[in-house]
Design brief:
Order of helices and strands: HHHHHHHHHEEEHHHHHH
Distance between the termini: 84 Å
Largest sheet: 3 strands, antiparallel
Shape: globular
Number of helices: 15
Number of strands: 3
Structural class: mainly alpha
CATH topology of the largest domain: hpI Integrase, Chain A
CATH architecture of the largest domain: Orthogonal Bundle
Strand order of the largest sheet: 1-2-3
Number of domains: 2
Radius of gyration: 24 Å
CATH superfamily of the largest domain: Intergrase catalytic core
Length: 359
C-alpha cells in the first residue's frame, strides 16, 4: 500500500512513519539464517505495522530484532537514526525539502572519524532509504522521486583516511588478563571470565563466541578445537591451548543449566547473551586494570589478539586465517603496528645526522 510523501500531520510524525516502514521492509528482506527466535521477530514486525510513537521506541524494537539474530538491521538503522535526529533539528515542514545537498552535509558531519567501511555503510543506508521512498510514496497517481545518488560525496577516497583499530599493547594486555581473574562478577563470575578469555585468546568475534555450542568444542592433544560459525554462515576452525581454560571450562559446563540450543554461554533462563552485555563486561575489566581506550567494546579484544599475533609471528597470512578474514587486505591493517619496521625508518634520519656531524 502506498502513501503520500507527506502522509502525517507534521514533519516529525511523517519522517518517523517512513523510517518505521523502511525498517519493517528491511526486517522482512534480510537474511534470516542466524535467526534464533522467530517469535520475537514476528512481534517486532507486528508492532511496526502500528508505527511507533518515538524514535527511541523504534530503537528498542530494532534491538530486539538484532538480539533475535537479525544483526544486519543495525547497518541500516544506525545511520538512519542519526539522519532522523539531524532532520528533526533542521525543523523542516515537508519531506520534499530533503535533497541531495542536505544529505551530503549529513554524511560529511556524521561520519567524521569513522572507518571507510562505516562511511560506506552510512551512504548505503541513506541511498536504500530514499530509493524505498521513491517506490512507496504516491498521491493522485504521482510519486515524489528523490533520485538520490550521492556520487559526489567525498567521504570515501580509496583507502585514504583509514582508521586504525583500538588495541591493547602487551603491557596493557598483561594487566587486563590479571583483571579478568580479579573482577567480582558474583554468581556469573566463571561464565563471564570464560567469555572474555575465549575472545582474547583466539580473536573470535563476540557474536561467534556467543554462538558457540558445547558440541562445537573438541580436544586434540594439548588444544581445544573450536568449530566457529562466522560471517555469512561460513564455518572455520580455531584452536585454543587447553592449559589456558581447561579447568574453568569443565567447571563451567558442569555448573551450567541445560538450554534448548546447547549454547556454551547463556543467561540463567537459557537465553543467549547479547553483545552489549559482553562489552559492558570488558569495560568493567578495563576500568579495574586502569586502561582507557577510545573504544572499550569487546571487539577491541579481537584487534588486540590480531596485533599480538602479527607482532610475535610477522605472518599476515596467519592473521588472516586465525581471524577468518575473507580477504588478505582486511588483515593488512595490523601491519601498521610493526614498531620494529617503524624504528628502522626512524634510524635513517639518525644515521644521516650522524654522518653529517662526522663530516
Amino acid at each position: 500500500m502506498k502513501f503520500p510523501i507527506d502522509c502525517e500531520d507534521d514533519f516529525n510524525s511523517t519522517l518517523l512513519f517512513w523510517v518505521c516502514r523502511f525498517v519493517r521492509a528491511k526486517l522482512n528482506s534480510l537474511s534470516n539464517k542466524e535467526l534464533r527466535d522467530p517469535k520475537i521477530l514476528q512481534n517486532v514486525i507486528m508492532e511496526l505495522t502500528k508505527t511507533t510513537k518515538s524514535i527511541n521506541e523504534l530503537d528498542e524494537l530494532v534491538k530486539s530484532a538484532r538480539n533475535a539474530g537479525l544483526t544486519g538491521i543495525n547497518t541500516y538503522f544506525t545511520p538512519l537514526k542519526k539522519l532522523y535526529d539531524m532532520l528533526i533539528f533542521q525543523k523542516l515542514y515537508s519531506m520534499k525539502q530533503i535533497d541531495e545537498e542536505l544529505l551530503s552535509d549529513f554524511l560529511a558531519s556524521s561520519t567524521g572519524g569513522l572507518s571507510d567501511a562505516s562511511k560506506k555503510n552510512h551512504r548505503m543506508a541513506v541511498l536504500s532509504f530514499f530509493s524505498y521512498l521513491d517506490k512507496q510514496n504516491e498521491e493522485e497517481g504521482k510519486s515524489h522521486v528523490y533520485n538520490i545518488e550521492l556520487k559526489n560525496w567525498g567521504g570515501i577516497v580509496g583507502k585514504k583516511g583509514e582508521k586504525l583499530p583500538e588495541f591493547m599493547n602487551e603491557n596493557e594486555l598483561k594487566r587486563f588478563l590479571e583483571a579478568i581473574d580479579n573482577c567480582p562478577f558474583k554468581s556469573v563470575a566463571l561464565r563471564n571470565r570464560l567469555i572474555v578469555k575465549f575472545i582474547v585468546y583466539t580473536g573470535i568475534r563476540v557474536s561467534e563466541a556467543l554462538g558457540l555450542k558445547i558440541r562445537d568444542i573438541s580436544e586434540e592433544k594439548d588444544c581445544f578445537v573450536l568449530r566457529i560459525r562466522g560471517k555469512g554462515n561460513k564455518y572455520r576452525v580455531v584452536m585454543l591451548k587447553r592449559m589456558l581454560v581447561e579447568n574453568e571450562l569443565k567447571e563451567h559446563i558442569k555448573a551450567s543449566l541445560p538450554n534448548k540450543d546447547g549454547l556454551l554461554f547463556c543467561n540463567k533462563n537459557g537465553v543467549r547473551l547479547t553483545q552489549a552485555y559482553v562489552s559492558r563486561i570488558v569495560e568493567q575489566m578495563l576500568t579495574i586494570a586502569g586502561i582507557r581506550k577510545e573504544k572499550n567494546g569487546a571487539h577491541m579484544l579481537r584487534h588486540t589478539f590480531a596485533t599480538l599475533l602479527y607482532h610475535r609471528r610477522k605472518d599476515i597470512v596467519l592473521v588472516q586465517e586465525a581471524l577468518g578474514h575473507a580477504s588478505l587486505n582486511t588483515s593488512r591493517i595490523y601491519t601498521h603496528f610493526d614498531s620494529n619496521k617503524l624504528k628502522e625508518a626512524a634510524n635513517v634520519t639518525e644515521e644521516f645526522i650522524k654522518d653529517k656531524i662526522k663530516k
